[in-house]
Amino acid sequence: MKLSARNQLPGTVVEVVEGAVNGIVKIEVAPGLVISSSITNAAIEELGLKAGTKAVAVIKASNVIVGVED
Question: pTM above the 0.90 mark?
Fold first, then answer.
């Protein structure tokens, strides 16, 4: 897979929860480090995503929001 996004984190799908239109896919990219993504149910089906599937979390964003506790 060739992409312009440089933040490509390979991992394993640990959970897929489908909603009415979109679902949440959780990918473990390191022991105990899980990245969640909201994608369409159609994409989940087309990609064959389910627990145990190898996948890549690709992150391309123009900004990152950081917060701290009060």
Answer: no
* Mean pLDDT for back-to-back runs of 10 residues, the chain (70 residues): 87 98 97 95 97 94 83
Q: What are phi and psi of 46, to 5 degrees?
A: -60, -35
Contacts of 16 (CB under 8 A, 6+ apart): 23, 24, 25, 26, 44, 49, 50, 51
**CA 2, CA 61: separation in Å to the nearest integer?**
17
Q: What gap in Å lies between CA 16 and CA 4, rounded to an integer?
A: 26
Instruction: Name the phi and psi angles at 28, rounded to 5.
Output: -85, 115
Return the CA Rg of the chain. 13
The encoded tokens of residue 45 equal 């089906």
